[in-house]
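EI: anyone free to look at a 93-residue chain?
SC: sure, send it
EI:
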Amino acid sequence: MVIGSCNMELLIYEVNSLKEKRQILKSIIGRIKSRFNVSIGEVGLNDLWRRAEVGVVCVSTNTRHALQMIDKVVEFIENDGRVEIISCNRETL
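SC: here you go
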């Protein structure tokens, strides 16, 4: 069993409150959960308006597949115009 994980720090554009931040993150997380077989959630920077820390985890039988799934999720987030990835730390266990 291989666990692929990714911790991302996001910059969120055009938000003026925590409520708007939560709406954007909820939308992105929901779309990722419906398209990819991964677990994802906000794991840090909860009280900042324009920044968020998101964690993604994938369990697979081989390392290559786990990293491919993580890469697809990162690409999906990069293509969303509402957020920008500031940092991305990938890891396999």
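EI: The radius of gyration is 13 Å.
SC: 👍
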